[in-house]
Design a protein that fits this description.
Elements (H helix, E strand, L loop, with lengths): L4 E6 L14 H15 L4 E6 L7 H6 L4 H25 L4 E5 L8 E2 L2 H9 L3 E5 L9 H11 L4 E6 L4 E2 L11 E2 L1 E3 H7 L6 H9 L4 E5 L5 H7 L5 E4 L1
Parallel strand pairs: 1-2, 1-6, 2-5, 3-4, 3-5, 6-10, 9-11
Antiparallel strand pairs: 7-8, 10-11
Helix pairs in contact: 1-3, 1-8, 5-7
Length: 235
């Protein structure tokens, strides 16, 4: 396998499947099986998951809620998703640990860098919940931060489209896909790969990002193997 240690970023919306909200058990089991394929080949896997399928802080604050309160609610939503993914992985015989930036000791370990790294070395998938633990920061920022802290080789952003395009491919059938992009090209073209804070942090630490379609069977395996799947962003 090309990558020894990966950070997989999943959106909360990815867990909805065909539902309008919540968690689709069939979809999350499918993701668990895809993760197991790379785990069984020896790849160390860490995961950051969003919470938009349950609650999104920005959306709540736009409707009059206090932004800080709304963001904490969003963090708790990511923990719910983390628990669901942990259950699905363990149902597929993949050992896991859930760590959270906010202490919820009854259900998860607090995030400790050395402990997270040790879990990975001991062949456990580590799921990071509650984002960075701070309001005003997205789970994209959390994904890049955790990837840097655990010395991941790459960030794999699983989405419902097969890479980065010059326009929304779901709205424009003539949109053109990019195979490779530099960080500078993404900034010049104004492409929204991740939020600005996350993207800048990734650029400063020379951490490549691969955006790919997580819903296509074996795509995750192919990306980790080194096949030309999705769009790669690097220096």
């Amino acid at each position: 396998m090309k990558y020894h240690r990966i950070l997989l970023k999943l959106s909360g919306e990815a867990l909805m499947g065909s539902q309008s909200h919540g968690i689709d058990p069939k979809r999350i089991d499918k993701y668990a099986k895809e993760i197991k394929k790379v785990f069984d080949k020896g790849t160390e896997v860490a995961i950051v998951i969003g919470g938009g399928n349950i609650f999104r802080g920005v959306s709540g604050s736009s409707k009059g809620m206090d932004r800080v309160q709304a963001d904490y609610m969003g963090m708790l939503a990511t923990v719910i998703n983390g628990l669901a993914l942990q259950g699905a992985l363990e149902n597929n015989n993949v050992p896991t640990r859930l760590q959270t930036a906010i202490k919820i000791e009854a259900i998860a370990e607090p995030f400790i860098k050395r402990k997270a790294t040790r879990h990975l070395e001991k062949r456990r998938v580590v799921i990071f919940g509650s984002g960075t633990g701070n309001p005003f920061f997205t789970t994209d920022s959390a994904a890049v931060l955790r990837a840097i802290e655990i010395n991941a080789d790459v960030i794999l952003k699983g989405t419902r489209v097969d890479g980065i395009y010059n326009d929304d491919p779901e709205k424009n059938i003539e949109a053109t896909k990019f195979e490779n992009l530099s960080f500078d090209e993404v900034l010049k073209k104004g492409i929204k790969v991740m939020d600005t804070t996350a993207f800048t942090l990734s650029q400063e630490n020379k951490l490549p990002i691969i955006v790919f379609d997580i819903n296509t069977p074996d795509n995750l395996y192919k990306v980790v193997k080194g096949e030309n799947i999705g769009t790669r962003v690097n220096l």
